[in-house]
Design brief:
Helix content is 76%, strand content 0%. It has eight helices and no strands. The longest helix is centred in the first third of the chain and has 26 residues. The chain is elongated, with a radius of gyration of 18 Å. The termini are far apart.
Amino acid sequence: MSQDAQDYVDDIARRRGYVLEYHQRMAAADVDVLRAADGLVTAAYLEPRSLDRKTKELLFVLSLTVMRAAPDHIASHIRVALEHGATAQEVLEAIEIALPEAGVVAFQHGFAVWAEVTGAPRIEPSEAVRR
């Protein structure tokens, strides 16, 4: 592994607030292509533009939910959304938008990740109902 690749992974972590496994593996395999792909992400997502970071993270959570992305990918954007001022309720509402367009299965995928990240409580059926 080159120091250049290590430095780039560290830079991704600083700028994004997370590092995905593919970032780590691409840095080791082909840091130049990772750098090129990351340039697009930086321009559309990380650079200050009209939308603030919190809003961008909520959009990422929604789009990743609809695409049924890997749970760790969704979780990373939920955590960053929370760090940038989103409430757990706002993140949930973003995920709920998946219901009419992508359906219950996509919603449940994102909801399960949200529940794990936020430690959402659960309500069990009453004893009388379980009999």
